[in-house]
Amino acid sequence: MVEAEEKGALKARLLHGEVVRTSHKEKAEARVGRIHARAKEALLAFRPEALAVEEQFFYRQNELAYKVGWALGAVLVAAFEVGVPVYAYGPMQVKQALAGHGHASKEEVALMVRSALGLKETPGPSHLADALAIALTHAFYARLGAAKPL
Amino acid sequence: MVEAEEKGALKARLLHGEVVRTSHKEKAEARVGRIHARAKEALLAFRPEALAVEEQFFYRQNELAYKVGWALGAVLVAAFEVGVPVYAYGPMQVKQALAGHGHASKEEVALMVRSALGLKETPGPSHLADALAIALTHAFYARLGAAKPL
User: Which of A11, A51, A123, B93 can bridge B89 by disulfide, Cβ–Cβ 3.0-4.6 Å?
Assistant: First the structure.
């Protein structure tokens, strides 16, 4: 969860960061239900203007696509219930927004995330850093009037 | 929603059948949110012992797998919230359970659905008939102590 400045250089404050871990020992509905409950809780606590997710590209892994879809479905239910619009950005758009060019390395993106949030270290784990990059990417495009709904 | 006899030939009563239709003009979160809300409402109204879904197989269609996954995620959230365990069966298991052999035609399966539910016509649309076949398949395996959790 980040709060972005409306103008000027891309600056934002990190309000909340969380990774929901599930175990393959849990039943599917419990894993998905827990993702929904945590997402809804954070949305209710912070009432953000937008929720941004990573646009997914799957090549051969249908089974993975299907199961990642379950988790996104749970997050979409939470967004709908709390009334938060959902946006999605792909890796190229993240690189473009944060590093200024589509061929930026993971390190360049991480550096820009740290810099925009005024942090000394890249927030971990890497899933959280990725989520923050997506959030900042949305802030970047929203300020340009070019937000990209899912 | 069906209520199955616990013993004897597979017989069940149709309590409720519903197809949730969404439009591609709706936002993704509204479509998924509505699927969740309708599923939860039906689960709360009938408090079933189990929710059975179709096991999905995707070959080349990753994009489809991902989006069908969103809808299943919404249903899993509802099942988790209401405390209903989820089971899944593939097409072969449906044919085996309802027609007694894995090479049954769609017509044979439809005939068995009508017969088990004591109906004169196959309930439409076809998505509803498919859902009822899955529900009856779960009843069949559950009676054998062979229910298949998702």
Answer: B93
